[in-house]
């Protein structure tokens, strides 16, 4: 076989060079939005297979149905970028990548059942590398450790085991901080570092401008998304009331469903949230979403159709009457109404929402990020106020609109201030 040349400096920023040179057992990489950490790790997957004939990779996410369009796709892109398409075989059933000259493999698994991962066998070498993508999704360090301990066996002289953990640091309560970043508690043999969008030289200027503007407009979100710092745990509005979990449409088939729509454009996303509600158990399942900046009216209508909103009640932000009129009259979006407004309607709506538990599907990333950064406001002295800060809330507002008919609509009309106040009071909130 011809000698393969890999030009790492052309591929990634110097901040990532240690990802390819370190032999530490754990490499924990937290990054801001668009920092390039997943691309850099995908390159590492390929490079380690080329460098070490004994290496097979295990790529893990909490939910298997997210792998094909994320880790699998990005490694495939990396192979193509490096000009190595002829050397690798990609299969989707099972989801695997094979290096054809040696039969080394990349396996993709989920943490739905950690014990199943431990039974993987290889035809050459050992599974001695793992990539834990979006590790913030992982529920516990115990299941992580179960998989790590299953990766064992003697390697050739100079061989080593290594585990790469990549994630966005949404909360400083997560076990990842304790295990890999805190000096007093972190594991031995750890390389941990942080990257930002400034370490990704493939970004266009419009995106860079949006990051810099977020620092001014939305400092709480910028803490994670721009700087890669640990997120906020104090003052979260929905603290302890939400979880990310995979679930099927069959599980929620008999529950009533609705759609909420909040409009944005240049700086703020337009958010469409799709939910099913279990009133008996006070659980809201958020099963789908679109969350995008720069959406024109036609694109919004197309997204509603694509995400199967037609046939469901759709409640949209009443502040944009032109958009709702265009959606209904020009693009024939059915069952569309505008959200109710009035004194303290936001605060009352959020208080009512706090009487539910939220199960957020893995595909619903915009809402999940907002739930992790939506906090109460403070006064000039730094005291907490009983009202949320008006930021990090576009998906949350859309969800509140979707829930409106289950909270503040009676006899087909939006309740008055007094009626809403009584409805909240009846819940003991």
TrEMBL record:
<dbReference type="InterPro" id="IPR006437">
    <property type="entry name" value="Phage_terminase_lsu"/>
</dbReference>
<feature type="domain" description="Phage terminase large subunit N-terminal">
    <location>
        <begin position="24"/>
        <end position="228"/>
    </location>
</feature>
<feature type="domain" description="Phage terminase large subunit C-terminal">
    <location>
        <begin position="262"/>
        <end position="404"/>
    </location>
</feature>
<dbReference type="InterPro" id="IPR035412">
    <property type="entry name" value="Terminase_L_N"/>
</dbReference>
<dbReference type="InterPro" id="IPR052380">
    <property type="entry name" value="Viral_DNA_packaging_terminase"/>
</dbReference>
<dbReference type="InterPro" id="IPR035413">
    <property type="entry name" value="Terminase_L_C"/>
</dbReference>
<dbReference type="GO" id="GO:0004519">
    <property type="term" value="F:endonuclease activity"/>
</dbReference>
<dbReference type="InterPro" id="IPR044269">
    <property type="entry name" value="Terminase_large_su_SPP1-like"/>
</dbReference>
<dbReference type="Pfam" id="PF04466">
    <property type="entry name" value="Terminase_3"/>
</dbReference>
<dbReference type="GO" id="GO:0016887">
    <property type="term" value="F:ATP hydrolysis activity"/>
</dbReference>
<dbReference type="InterPro" id="IPR027417">
    <property type="entry name" value="P-loop_NTPase"/>
</dbReference>
<protein>
    <submittedName>
        <fullName>Phage terminase, large subunit, PBSX family</fullName>
    </submittedName>
</protein>
<dbReference type="Pfam" id="PF17288">
    <property type="entry name" value="Terminase_3C"/>
</dbReference>
<dbReference type="GO" id="GO:0005524">
    <property type="term" value="F:ATP binding"/>
</dbReference>
């Amino acid at each position: 076989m011809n000698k393969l040349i890999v030009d790492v400096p052309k591929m990634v920023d110097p901040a990532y060079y240690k990802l390819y040179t370190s032999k530490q057992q754990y490499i924990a990489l937290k990054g801001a939005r668009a920092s390039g950490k997943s691309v850099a790790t995908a390159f590492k997957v390929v490079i380690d297979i080329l460098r070490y004939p004994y290496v097979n990779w295990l790529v893990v996410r909490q939910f298997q149905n997210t792998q094909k369009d994320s880790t699998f796709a990005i490694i495939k892109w990396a192979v193509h970028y490096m000009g190595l398409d002829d050397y690798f075989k990609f299969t989707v059933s099972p989801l695997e990548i094979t290096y054809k000259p040696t039969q080394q493999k990349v396996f993709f698994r989920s943490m739905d059942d950690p014990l199943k991962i431990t039974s993987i066998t290889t035809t050459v070498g050992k599974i001695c590398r793992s990539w834990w993508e979006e590790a913030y999704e992982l529920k516990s360090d115990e299941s992580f450790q179960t998989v790590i301990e299953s990766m064992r066996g003697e390697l050739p002289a100079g061989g080593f085991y290594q585990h790469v953990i990549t994630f966005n640091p949404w909360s400083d309560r997560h076990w990842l901080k304790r295990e890999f970043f805190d000096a007093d508690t972190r594991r031995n043999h750890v390389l941990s570092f942080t990257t930002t969008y400034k370490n990704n030289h493939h970004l266009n200027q419009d995106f860079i401008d949006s990051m810099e503007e977020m620092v001014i407009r939305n400092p709480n979100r910028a803490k994670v998304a721009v700087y890669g710092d640990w997120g906020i745990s104090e003052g979260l509005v929905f603290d302890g009331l939400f979880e990310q979990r995979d679930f099927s449409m069959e599980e929620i088939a008999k529950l009533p469903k609705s759609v909420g729509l909040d409009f944005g454009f240049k700086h703020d996303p337009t958010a469409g949230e799709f939910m099913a509600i279990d009133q008996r158990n006070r659980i809201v399942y958020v099963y789908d979403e679109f969350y995008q900046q720069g959406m024109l009216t036609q694109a919004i209508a197309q997204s509603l159709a694509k995400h199967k909103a037609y046939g469901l009640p759709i409640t949209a932000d009443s502040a944009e009457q032109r958009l709702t009129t265009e959606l209904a009259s020009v693009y024939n979006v059915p069952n569309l109404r505008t959200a109710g407004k009035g004194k303290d309607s936001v605060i009352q709506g959020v208080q009512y929402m706090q009487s539910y538990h939220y199960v957020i599907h893995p595909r619903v990333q915009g809402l999940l990020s907002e739930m992790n950064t939506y906090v109460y406001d403070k006064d000039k002295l730094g005291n907490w106020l009983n009202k949320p800060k008006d930021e990090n809330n576009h998906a949350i507002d859309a969800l509140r609109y979707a829930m409106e008919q289950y909270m503040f609509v009676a006899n087909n009309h939006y309740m008055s201030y007094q009626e809403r106040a009584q409805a909240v009071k009846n819940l003991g909130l």
